[in-house]
Specification:
alpha/beta; Uracil-DNA Glycosylase, subunit E; 6-stranded mixed β-sheet; 6 strands
Length: about 240
């Protein structure tokens, strides 16, 4: 696709489209219900209650792909991975490896900036039970396809969880790029090389830093750090 806008303007225009999206009635109902009912510990806060655009640098070389906003995390704060335990893990790690200006992410006005990094997700609305349907993910995929067109400096992708891993590959395919054969399989620490338009892109798999994984020990901090250490090493080559 020919680029008629700067990455910054294209990124901002796409963000406006995402925030205004109402394509999935189930998700619209859920996110707006959560916005109204809230939860006790955040009862005094105004919830975002809208779809979440990608967050970060339109010229980033590192792209992080998550699943969907948490009902009382990003759906409350209005920024990807902000305001919940998963975000605590992610931003501590990004700061550790030089991709974020601070290690905590509490709200979208806290001053945090990403360095050479962008965060997106396969679904942009908080889903019931943290589980978007296959149809909802497919409906949302066009936004990531457009992001891949804008983010043409990306060299490394970290997919957090199998749904994000598979969803990213589907968006990669829909953007007109080839998927290797055999198709890369997800695993924590998995590594695959994709042929991009201008360069090879490294696809890294990681368990999602959800409480289900971190509280049970399925994902430990050293395991999570190792994935991002690999990403940093690849970008430093």
């Amino acid at each position: 696709m020919a680029k008629t806008q700067s990455p910054d303007k294209a990124f901002a225009a796409l963000a406006r489209r995402v925030v205004a999206c109402r394509q999935c009635p189930r998700l619209v109902d859920h996110r707006e219900n959560v916005q109204t009912t809230k939860t006790r510990r955040f009862a005094d806060q105004d919830y975002w209650g809208k779809p979440l655009p990608a967050f970060g640098d339109p010229r980033a070389r590192l792209l992080i792909v998550g699943l969907a906003p948490a009902a009382h995390g990003a759906n409350r704060t209005g920024r990807m991975f902000t305001g919940d335990r998963s975000g605590d893990w992610l931003f501590e790690t990004l700061h550790r490896f030089g991709f974020a200006t601070q290690s905590e992410s509490t709200d979208r006005a806290d001053g945090l900036e990403l360095n050479d990094c962008c965060i997106t997700a396969v679904a942009r609305c908080a889903p019931p039970g943290n589980k978007p349907t296959a149809h909802e993910i497919e409906t949302c995929r066009g936004y990531m396809v457009r992001e891949l067109d804008i983010l043409d400096d990306v060299r490394v992708v970290v997919a957090l969880g199998k749904i994000a891993f598979d969803g990213f590959q589907a968006a990669w395919r829909d953007s007109g790029l080839a998927i290797p054969k055999p198709k890369p399989k997800f695993g924590h620490g998995s590594v695959a090389t994709l042929e991009g338009r201008a360069r090879e892109v490294l696809l890294l798999g990681s368990y999602h830093p959800s409480q289900q994984n971190t509280f049970t020990g399925r994902l430990t901090a050293p395991m999570f750090h190792q994935v991002f250490r690999k990403a940093r090493q690849a970008l430093n080559q």
